[in-house]
Amino acid sequence: MKFDRRSDVRLYLEGSIVLYKSRPAMVESVGRECKGGFIIKIYLLRGKGSLITTRTTDPLLSLDSVRLGYYNDGTRAIYLKRNPIRYYKRGVNSNNVSTGYSINAVINAVKGNYPSFNEALKNVSDGSILSVAFSRNFAVDSKHLYFKGRVVGKNLGKDVKLLRKLTFLNRELQEAKNVCV
After folding, report:
1. Domains and CATH numbers, the chain
2. Computed from CA positions of residues 71, 82, 137, 28, in that sequence, does the dihedral angle turn out positive or negative?
3. I want to staple 17 with a disulfide (CB 3.0 to 4.6 A). Which of 8, 92, 130, 166 is the partner?
């Protein structure tokens, strides 16, 4: 993405989560123009949390929107989605998502780190965890199966069953359960 003015880069990127080397990073600040791009400081949100100085034209920097969906935050699964608002920010930030978020939980969602389907069922069966996401789109609690924040089926204990009118989700559910169709 080409930027013409520093003020545009600041408006568009500061405070947003983007990807650097396929790892989530928060844009901390924007500096002067240099070699066809603007210098930016990003803070890697995983590992040692290094502060890196790079340019907006760096091929290792992805300003594309990160994939959102469910994330596991303590004892519950929360569906995180972008709000359909006109807001000039790139990436994920507190102003363009539907719920507040924990950085570590969002990092796991962005990277696709979820427990297996069987682990999710086991975690909710004893009642100590209210709900668990096992993919970006699916989560379970002790009674229900959820797809993108909506009830789409029942938790039968050792498996789940889609509501009759929603069987078109079966293929996606099977993929989320890591079972070949």
Report:
1. 6-62 (2.30.30), 69-111 (no CATH), 117-176 (no CATH)
2. negative
3. 92
